[in-house]
């Protein structure tokens, strides 16, 4: 016997002895009705299933069926949201993740059929087959979370599958740094080398390499002996981008000590002499860290040159960014509070400083306990 209608959107099948509920999703992008059917053993369960479906469909979380794929949604998200509102370096980084990983693995999956299992398998594949680190894969998760939550807000998804996965846990990177003795040794070795101003700005002021490469002479105030950190020069693939500093707190003014002030004056004088000698062949970009033609260095070129320098002089392995860590460590050893160190480094919050420099917290903690113990003797 055929199914017979019991109530609106509910029918009963005598042969199978089950109730069929018609789930009407509405019209798709082509105007066709999209329906599916679910079966229930009892009329009460069928009614409850229909009520739950109707509440979800007609409530604030209602979405219409769409055939758009994840690739198509990510393209929309990049062009309409990310490209107009994010830095060029961010656009480049997101695009690289999408092109090299997300599109080949999940790009053809319909957006509304993307499941937590898809994502969980994707994360595992990146780590097990492609050898990516947990921290790198976490960036993939953060990208997907941002893009898919927008899909929820724009009524393309009921909820984001990224809310129901277990992303890789971020593994804090241990900050590598020099001791004060090693830093003094490095400063002595680099004297007279074109890297000297770069190395000493990183080690004595804690500047990021992008901040050093983006520093202009107009931001150096010799009269007041201070430097205004307000620009950064960074790489976005093959392109070099001059932009504002990382965040509002990265825009800061720092004091120049005697040695650093002397060094920068000497470098400025040398550049003036070279510019007069070369005339039109000298670049007028007015950067502090420049080559023999007055052209600014790229951050990657500076990092590579520094790595080669310390290797050739038998110094312990460290990155140029490690000199920033060294500055923080030396400052802490001299009694500077963590809050002041964070301000000098341009961190957005003291919590950021504490998260990166856990060894400083350990030293402060030990010193505090020692002072309490001394007081109780």
Automatic annotation (TrEMBL):
Domain Core-binding (CB): 68-152
Gene3D superfamilies reported for this sequence: 1.10.150.130, Intergrase catalytic core
Residue ranges that the Swiss-Prot or TrEMBL entry lists as coiled coil: none
InterPro entries named in the record: CB (IPR044068), DNA_brk_join_enz (IPR011010), Integrase-like_cat_sf (IPR013762), Integrase_catalytic (IPR002104), Integrase_recombinase_N (IPR010998), Integrase_SAM-like_N (IPR004107), Tyrosine_recombinase_XerCD (IPR050090)
Keyword Nuclease annotated: no
UniProt domain Tyr recombinase: residue ranges: 173-370
Keyword DNA-binding carried by entry: yes
UniProt record, GO biological process: DNA integration; DNA recombination
Gene Ontology molecular function: DNA binding
PROSITE patterns assigned: CB, TYR_RECOMBINASE
Residues making up the signal peptide according to the UniProt record: none
Protein name: Tyrosine-type recombinase/integrase
Function per UniProt: Site-specific tyrosine recombinase, which acts by catalyzing the cutting and rejoining of the recombining DNA molecules.
Similarity-based family: Belongs to the 'phage' integrase family.
One Pfam family hit: Phage_int_SAM_3
Organism of derivation: Lawsonibacter hominis
Keyword entries, A-Z: DNA integration, DNA recombination, DNA-binding
